[in-house]
Design brief:
- The protein is an alpha+beta fold and 478 residues long.
- The chain is 26% helix and 41% strand.
- The strands form 9 sheets. It has a 4-stranded antiparallel sheet with strand order 3-30-29-28, with no helix packed on it.
- α3 packs antiparallel against α4.
Amino acid sequence: MATCYEDGSGVHMKGDAVSRRFAWTQHPLFRFLASTRLAIVLIVLIAGGLVSGSIVDVRTSHRVAMHAVYGAVWFQLLLGVFALNLICCTLKAAPYRLAHLGFLVTHVSLLLVLAAAMLTANFGIRGTVRIVEGERMDYYFDPALLRCADATSARAVNIPTVFETRADLLQERYDGVVHVHAGRLPGVSILVDRYYPDASPVGESTVTIAIPGQRIRQVIPAVADPDTRVSIEGTDWAITIERTFYDWKDGREAGGPEQAGNPAARVIVHRPGGDVALTLFSRFPGFSTQPEPGQPGFTATYRFLPESPLMRGWRAENPAVRVNLSDDEGNRRTIWVRSRERAEVPLGNRRLVVEYPRRVPLGFGLVLREFVAKRYPHSNIPAAYESHLMVQRPSGQEQPAVIAMNAPARIGGFRLYQSSHGFDPKSRRRYTVLSLSRDPGAPVLYVGFAMLIAGLIVSFYLRPYLRRRRRGRREEAS
């Protein structure tokens, strides 16, 4: 039995063979997946996800938005179901005629746009490269991951480092606590449980004693040991560090290493004429005595640099994370790792290397020959920044490159942008910070947008043209 149907190109016959060929389109599951109601629900949910992603991007960072929204499983699942809905809607229109051309091109273009979004979210690369003038860099920092490697077995694990989601942006406050990020190497557990967006320096606290009249100045590690006297070189004096306090308040200790509000050290200066007991406060001027009959004067100061950093602010300026390491034999270590640092940690018979963030090989070398800051004439206002680089290929070939503001360069499959710059206090030279990206979904996205425009044009003009041609044929026949 044959049936008739009509479209923009005329009246056609759908025979029993064609009906049997496309009978699967009547299956309830297919009809559900190809329904317009499902498409509307998915579009609303995806739009809500895009809005929430934009809010997270503005309030935190693009990296957090990619991790929490665009790269999340639930959002990827929504895009996947929407792509399946588009495919089913496209197949539902079979068999295709010329009038379906705009419809087909538009649907295929939307599928390409979805594929580009998934490629970017899952395989896109973003990072930073920091190069000091005259030095070579052959890796970039991946800010999304912390890497812990076992130098003995050469095994490594990567742990996500998206911690900004706990920032209280309205009160401009950050409590530092993060959701636990864990990983595991064979026999070793890694736990990241604290994050500071802006951490204070970490180092060794010291006590400095000086005798101006004798031109004597000695710096002593502030290690509390009430039974040990440290001799002052060149004199018959000595000093004992009885105790150190993280927060000295009302004559007693208050607070801990991460709440060092008023650090102090209790010391005893041993002199031939008698001992002097002092409480030295790190955030106040040091103790000073005037010369006495038969005794020179001296000064003593306490410089506090905690073994764990203090948080100075909630904006991501100098990030640091706390990493807890433990093995199956009961050995434990807790370390703080600051951004762009690599720490080697002995744990039992293992030697672990912790990198924050993860270092990824570029596949080529970049040498910063010169960083140029151009200014407007007769002014100190910056006009442009330029990084003059030498690209060193693995084959030994060298090629100059210049990266400037609003003028990125494509090198080794990456696109490099001028991001920031500064002065390196160690080498006393300038450095440049380049943003790096690789987006495998970009070419697919461009093709998808071009097809979308073409599909809309065909949809608006092809069907009316076919209708006019059909009307003309009818008029000629009559």
